[in-house]
Amino acid sequence: xxxxxxxxxxxxxxxxxxxxxxxxxxxxxxxxxxxxxxxxxxxxxxxxxxxxxxxxxxxxxxxxxxxxxxxxxxxxxxxxxxxxxxxxxxxxxxxxxxxxxxxxxxxxxxxxxxxxxxxxxxxxxxxxxxxxxxxxxxxxxxxxxxxxxxxxxxxxxxxxxxxxxxxxxxxxxxxxxxxxxxxxxxxxxxxxxxxxxxxxxxxxxxxxxxxxxxxxxxxxxxxxxxxxxxxxxxxxxxxxxxxxxxxxxxxxxxxxxxxxxxxxxxxxxxxxxxxxxxxxxxxxxxxxxxxxxxxxxxxxxxxxxxxxxxxxxxxxxxxxxxxxxxxxxxxxxxxxxxxxxxxxxxxxxxxxxxxxxxxxxxxxxxxxxxxxxxxxxxxxxx
Length: 382
Prior knowledge:
Helices cover about 40% and strands about 20% of the residues. With about 375 residues, the chain is an alpha/beta fold. Helix 11 (about 300-320) crosses helix 12. It starts with 7 loop residues before the first helix and ends with a strand.
């Protein structure tokens, strides 16, 4: 009986076929683009640091993690994502740290058919819904707890100052959608760019409008700029910040001006105060214990939770996907996508995830708490 052999050229062609058995790999490749330099580094650095505490293998298969910095630039984030697709043959893509580059990464991932975990809130439209999910809490969930606090404290008029980009738009639109029907009015709207070093002009207009409270739609250390400027200009009302500012760096930069701020946050910022039965308590304590042991007391961060939780999700869905496909193949990526939809009540530090075809955030009210700053520390707000 004659044996059939492949020529070297034919073998090379088979090896190059993405869906062939020969293209399978013995490891799962995760490409991560985050912002570790530039104005949003306060978000990306904790996301990168948290990778020290994620599993090195899942389901008996090694995890290969590749991390690139995008500096918060959507063009660089796009380049990084394309490198993950073409050079690294990534099974999973994560990133980025802020909304505009996350949108860019999502576009690449959906074009390539690779599961994508966004680490910043971002709009997930029809073009991005098949392969993308978001780890941070959706704006409507985090906004509602702020507006409820406003209403409970007699706030009638609110001034808004936020980024002049998609993150600022998300919060401004949410305020109009939720807070105005609850009885609040918009006193004035001001915007600033992420790299700006002064918002004096915008704050003067806010102070002149004299709202009962101000909502700041910003993230990272730049969120402290309106906070400090408002207090410097004599504003005495309540200032509300989003979960994009929930880190110790905000207090470090804002200093005394941070006192009394009202901030929505994920439960990872205070797992010690959660009920023992809360599904978010154990993973939150685990992350914070490891993170603060390495990076110092009170170094915990909302943003560290995002990348850490992405791997909490992978711990649930990878073993399911491995039952039907091998890493390095389109079949494995599709199996991961389907497992994201089939696995329920995935407990993590920031919430309990239940992704669906339409809900790509997958979170409920268990993903939020409300904090204030007292004596330079975050404490639950009343």
